[in-house]
Request: fold
Amino acid sequence: MTDARLTSSKLLSDPQWLSAQAHVSWGKEVQLLKHLGLQDGMSILELGCGPGFVTELLLDSFPASKLTAVDLDPAMTELARKRLAKHIPHKVEILQESTGSTSLADESFDFAIARYLFQHLGAPETTLEETSRLLKSGGTLAIADIDDDLGGIIDGGLPSFSTLMNRLRGLQSKRGGNPHIGRKLWRLLRDARFERLTLDAILTHSDELGLEPFLPQYHPDRYQSLLSTEGGVSQEEWEQYRREYDLFITSKTAYIMSLIFVASGRKPPNTSA
Ligand SMILES: C[S@@+](CC[C@H](N)C(=O)[O-])C[C@H]1O[C@@H](n2cnc3c(N)ncnc32)[C@H](O)[C@@H]1O
Reply:
């Protein structure tokens, strides 16, 4: 049976989509992470690592760093361990634990990254408290996540996509997730006593990158599980979406723009010396 803490993320953690999603924006994300202070050689904590696509990208971008990647879902840690086998244990450690309560030692990390995790957390405050314990004094947490009211733009087709997303996000909320987490990130960091807060948006679009890298997120197969889920979509709605998708991918006017929010904060330096 699925761990109750994972029912939201189980809706939105298809590895094929996560892979496409990680690669489409990584170039911009890594620039922002560097701007926020992430440097090669730092000890990095990745919260909610999923199948390890971002872990791999982090290793490529920061080859002198040591990474610890945490995910509660055993299916995800297994995929991550397979993907990163050649780097374990000298470069990467993968733990199957909750980000709200880990076995890791106090003040072990220079930089923590949580990507697409916070939208799934029923109690984000607990993960913030735990991350604060794990960061060295002066260490930084960067959270990349969505806000469904500002997810992006689709033009040139796919009118039914909004129906699918409304149902999906409704189910996510019912399962303890928060599809509007983007607007909450600053306050959450502030209330957890992080300082030097920042909030940025990363924007990617198909005129620059082509349609192809975005398509795994929109492929009808990704939404097929909604057919058998209460509160999901009917066969008729799904078939309609599939027809729209087939037209969209051949349309000359098809356009996708996608937005991710990145909030960051620093753990206050220890001044009690
Ligand atoms: C949407 S995936 C994102 C994976 C990866 N960060 C990425 O950007 O590709 C969210 C991940 O968070 C994990 N997760 C959800 N709640 C968690 C928790 N309380 N503790 C640890 N991992 C959790 C899920 O198992 C899932 O792998």
About this structure: The chain has a mean pLDDT of 95. The radius of gyration is 19 Å. The longest strand covers residues 255-266.
